[in-house]
Amino acid sequence: MITVVSCSHYPDDERIYHKEIKTLVKKKHIINYFTLSASKNNLSNKSINHTNYSSAKYSIKEYIDLIELKIIETSTKVIHIHEPELFSLAVSIKKLTGARIIYDVHEDYISMIYTFSKWNKHVKYLKAKYWLFKEKSFLKHVDEVIIASSTIVNSDFRTQGFSPVLLENFPLDTWVNNINLSNKIKNSLIYHGNMGPERGIIELIEAMNHVIQNIPDATLSLIGGFRTIEYKEKVNRKIDMLGIRNHVNLQGHILHQDIWPHLAKHAVGIIPFNKNPLTQINTPTKLFEFMASGCQLVVPSLKPITKYDFKAARVFKPGDIMALSNMMIKSLKTNDRVGVKYNFNKIRSDYNWENNSHKLLELYDRVLS
Hints:
The protein is an alpha/beta fold and 369 residues long. The chain has 14 helices and 13 strands.
C-alpha cells in the first residue's frame, strides 16, 4: 500500500495523478490518494482509493488531522507528499507506522517567498532562512527526494546526502499521439495555467490590444484559475478598459485530460512571464504542451525556458509589452510548419513522460525493497 497526499493541487493534477500515480498503478501498486481541493471529481477505481476533502470546509490543519487517522489504519509502506505543508504529517506517519517518506518537490520555495511575499527584503530574508531550517529538519526523516526541475535548490539536497531524482513535467506521449493538429483557428493565441502578476497576464492583455490594432480578427484565450480574486478583478477591469472583451476569452480550470483539444486548435501559445526569482528558476510545463499541440511559440528570454531545444518561436524581453506584442504579431503572420513539426517530433523523441517514468519505478523499487 502506497499513500499519496496533496493539499493544494487539483485531484487530476497532471504530474501527481496522470503521470506518477498511473505509472505506479501499471506496476500493480495499490494507492491511497488524499487531496484537499474545491473539486468534486472522484478518481477511485480498483487500484486507487481517492478521498477528497473540500477546501471550502476544511483548513490544511484540519485536513491533516483527519487523514492522519485514516492513514494509520492502513498498512501503508510509503507516504509520498507533494507540498511542504505536509512535513508534520509525513514525520508523524513515519514515527507511528515506519512508512518511508518520499518528498516530491514541485517548486523552489525560496524563490516563491521572494516572489510572492509582500514583506520588505529583510523580512523576506528571515522568512526564507526559517523555511530552510524547517526543510532541513524535515529532511532528517526523508528517504527519497524527487525534483521537478534541475534548477530547484531549496536547502541544497545534495549537501545533505540526497541524490534527487529528476522527473521533469514533460507531456504523456499517449496524449500527444491523439492530438489533431490540422484544425487551427486563424489568428488565435492561447495562454493556459495559473494567472497572477508574476506571470504577466496584465502585460499580455495590454500587448493584445496592440495586436488587435494590426490584426483585427485576432483572439486570445486565457484558460486557468486566478491566484487571487483581486487579480481576477484587475484583469477583467483591464480588458473592459481597453474595450477588447470580444477578443479575449476567459475560461476557468479545465481538467487536464480535456485541455488538449483547446491547445491544439490555437495557432500560437504564449508564455508571458515577467522576470522574478520564481520564473528565473522554474520551467513552465506549458512550454512542452504548446510544442506537443502544434502551436508556434512566444516566450520570454528566461533561461529555464530557452535552455530547451525548440523552433517556431519568437523570444521577447520579459515585461516589455511592445516587444511581446510585436512577437505575437510576427507569429500570427508566419506559418512555420517546419518548426512546428520539429517541436512535435522533439516531444515524441525526448520531452515526454515515458522517458522519465522508469526513474520513478526504480525509486519505488529502492524504497520498498
